[in-house]
Amino acid sequence: MIEKILLADSGTGQTEEMLKMLMDIPLIQRAKVTVLHVVPPQVTAEGMTEKWEEGGKTLARAIQTLKLDPSHVTAMLREGDPKDVVCRVAEEIDTDLIIMGSRGLKRIQSILENSVSQYVFQLSSRPMLLVKDDIYVRKINRIMVAMDKSESAQQGLKLALALLRDIKNGQLILVHTNPDLKLKPGEISANPNEDPVLIPAANEAKKLGISYKCVAPEGKPGERICQVAEELNVDLLILGSPDRRPSIARGLPDLDRLLGQSLSDYVRVYANCPVLLVRSPAA
Fold this sequence. Notes:
The protein is 37% helix and 19% strand.
């Protein structure tokens, strides 16, 4: 399922640590990894030479730190605008997953500050694992999937199940915000039989012998998903992020997301764990 991984390595943040944690999972160990470092254009030739040298050292350190099988890793140094280069390379190598760092900038601030991860999130159709610079990356045991009836949520569930089959003592946490349950503010758990969205997902986990927990909180989805992730010490949060734009506009950013109105935008900013955004393009 994940055979090619693109790690966009800026030399800072937690992305390398995240990849190391993923590589503990047998399903991921077979993947080919491309470690990309992008050198932004410089005003002078001397400045450009200096940045190329720095970029080469960053890549060398990353490869050494990751300790990957040399036959499964490619180091790539490119020049250009990081936002555009990451998107272009993702298409070139036909990657199944992009791993990027994120400063966790809020809403319109990320556009004003020229956030690379926000731009790539907008314009790439590839699944994307965002790792905020200020979070602690843990060994992956508890994976939470935010469920609804969308195709992207179903794709997220399939990925979580595939990962957890290889994780000893792993747990799947299924969450669906349901305003009809009328739970008290402090309650986060509910009987999965009360939530028709969670029943099929729980059954899939049961068939595979995967330990699971169903959570059906009331309230605003973004806030409650982040709250549950924190309270249950989730190691990885998987969230469907369907591309709602018509095909003619897929080259343009989604204005709802740019303005911070989407669930995925809220969660990527406020979740206290790595967030894997699974895409399922609209018809």
